[in-house]
């Protein structure tokens, strides 16, 4: 990004400091610092979700390497089971990273979370398969996935809070949209990598060494992200809150005691994001190839096209939420999913590649109404001294229970019911819960962070 005032993510120092805008701090922030904050937040989330994409998109290969079985669906279920188990530690991570982020600062928590994530991801690339060490292989895979889940718990929430606290008051939605945009970009590159590997390598080469390549790339990217973060100051809102009084002795305790209603509303609002994100953007290639019989490379290609449009829609949604309010946009997302999810999954059964691509673009666009608004909505719900904790606990609780389990539940629902539309019904139910939660909340976009 350049220093031009025409950029939607730029603002002058005077704008940042003007009390009339409702910012939480009177400290000035220059455009160079904001660019560094945006870059660091983008890279951190990119690394995290590139890894999740690689695991999800290469699930069939990973199943063959770590869970060989005469029944491919059984191996796939165990692979997604490990994926789901790694999310069980995310609420624990949410409590710990939230505590650290509200006590010692957003920057420190984010710097350590990306380092932990990078190390665990790189180690996965070095793991031997089941053929070499038997049951030790899936156990080591699970252990590293648990470390990843723990570290990821602090990344999305911390980056969102960091960006919102650095953003001009009238552009908090747009700035926070950088986080889901980086998430989608990580998935996009993971999809491209998976498509390239499956298209260029034989099954034997893919299972022997090809699947390791995406995980090896995490090391240099993660170290770059950490380096940028260590060169930043903490957010103006956090610094000012710290100077105005000592931080909460127990941010999570204060959250549970004084803000538990908001916590429940936030967790409910996250439900559509949790299920929708993993069903539409992570599980979908596996669904298309394993359940509907679409060629694996074409499945990845369809998801890649949808992700390209998704990134653009995310920023549009961020701007819409700044103009019309978080609550209105989030409610619109839930209503659209209630009405169109099952018909969209029925259209996927046509097997027509163009129809499949268009359906995925539609589902992705609907999801951006939720995903692009949620980071600013959650960050604005909680006061500065418990913001990281409130975001991290609510976001990771819903993702642990319903997000990480979504591919497993979708596969299990199809296996038990014999109905390939089952994931669509599951996603529609999540939308209903989110609709009720958001409807019970208040508008936050035009209120000061403090």
Walk me through the structure.
Keywords: Cell membrane, Membrane, Symport, Transmembrane, Transmembrane helix, Transport. It is a multi-pass membrane protein. Its main location: membrane. This protein is mostly helical and 450 residues long. It has a single domain (31-439), classed as Growth Hormone, Chain: A. Helix content is 78%, strand content 0%. The chain has 23 helices and no strands. It has helices spanning 13-17, 31-57, 59-66, 72-85, 90-103, 106-125, 130-133, 136-166, 172-176, 178-200, 203-208, 213-216, 218-230, 236-244, 251-258, 260-291, 296-324, 326-348, 353-371, 374-381, 387-403, 406-417, 422-439. α2 packs antiparallel against α8, α2 packs parallel to α10 (178-200) and α2 packs antiparallel against α13. The longest helix has 32 residues, at 260-291. It is globular. 57% of the residues are buried.
- What is the number of independent domains? 1
Question: Which architecture name does CATH use?
Answer: Up-down Bundle
Strand/helix succession: HHHHHHHHHHHHHHHHHHHHHHH
Content of β-strand: under 5%
What's this model, at a glance?
Residues 11-25 have a biased composition (Low complexity). 78% of the residues lie in helices and 0% in strands.
């Amino acid at each position: 990004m350049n220093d031009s005032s025409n950029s939607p993510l730029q603002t002058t120092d005077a704008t940042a400091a003007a009390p009339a805008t409702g910012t939480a701090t009177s400290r000035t922030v220059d455009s160079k610092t904001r660019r560094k904050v945006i870059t660091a937040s983008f890279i951190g989330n990119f690394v995290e979700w590139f890894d999740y994409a690689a695991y999800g998109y290469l699930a069939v290969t990973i199943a063959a390497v770590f869970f060989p079985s005469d029944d491919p669906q059984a191996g796939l279920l165990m692979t997604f089971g490990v994926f789901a188990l790694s999310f069980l530690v995310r609420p624990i991570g949410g409590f710990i990273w939230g505590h650290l982020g509200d006590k010692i600062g957003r920057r420190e928590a984010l710097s350590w979370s990306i380092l932990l994530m990078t190390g665990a991801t790189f180690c996965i690339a070095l793991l031997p398969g089941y053929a070499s060490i038997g049951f030790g292989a899936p156990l080591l895979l699970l252990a590293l996935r648990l470390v990843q889940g723990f570290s990821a718990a602090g990344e999305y929430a911390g980056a969102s809070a960091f960006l919102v606290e650095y953003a001009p008051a009238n552009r908090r939605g747009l700035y926070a949209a950088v986080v889901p945009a980086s998430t989608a970009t990580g998935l996009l590159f993971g999809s491209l990598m998976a498509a390239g590997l499956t298209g260029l390598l034989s099954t034997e080469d893919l299972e022997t060494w090809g699947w390791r390549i995406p995980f090896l790339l995490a090391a240099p990217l993660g170290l770059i992200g950490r380096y940028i973060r260590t060169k930043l100051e903490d957010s103006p809102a956090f610094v000012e809150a710290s100077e105005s009084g000592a931080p909460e002795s127990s941010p999570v305790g204060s959250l549970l005691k004084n803000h538990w209603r908001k916590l429940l509303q936030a967790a409910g609002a996250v439900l559509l994001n949790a299920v929708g994100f993993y069903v539409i953007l992570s599980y979908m290639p596996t669904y298309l190839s394993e359940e509907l019989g679409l060629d694996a490379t074409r499945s990845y290609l369809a998801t890649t096209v949808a992700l390209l449009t998704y990134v653009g829609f995310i920023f549009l949604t961020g701007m819409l939420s700044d103009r019309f309010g978080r609550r209105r946009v989030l409610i619109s997302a839930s209503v659209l999913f209630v009405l169109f999810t099952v018909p969209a999954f029925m259209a996927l059964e046509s097997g027509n590649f163009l129809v499949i691509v268009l359906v995925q673009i539609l589902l992705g666009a609907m999801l951006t109404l939720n995903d692009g608004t949620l980071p600013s909505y959650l960050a604005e719900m909680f006061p500065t001294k418990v913001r990281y904790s409130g975001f991290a606990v609510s976001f990771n609780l819903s993702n642990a229970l319903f997000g990480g389990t979504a591919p497993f539940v979708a596969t299990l629902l199809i296996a038990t019911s014999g109905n390939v539309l089952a994931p669509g019904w599951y996603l529609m139910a999540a939308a209903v819960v989110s609709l009720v939660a958001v409807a019970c909340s208040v508008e936050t976009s035009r209120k000061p962070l403090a």
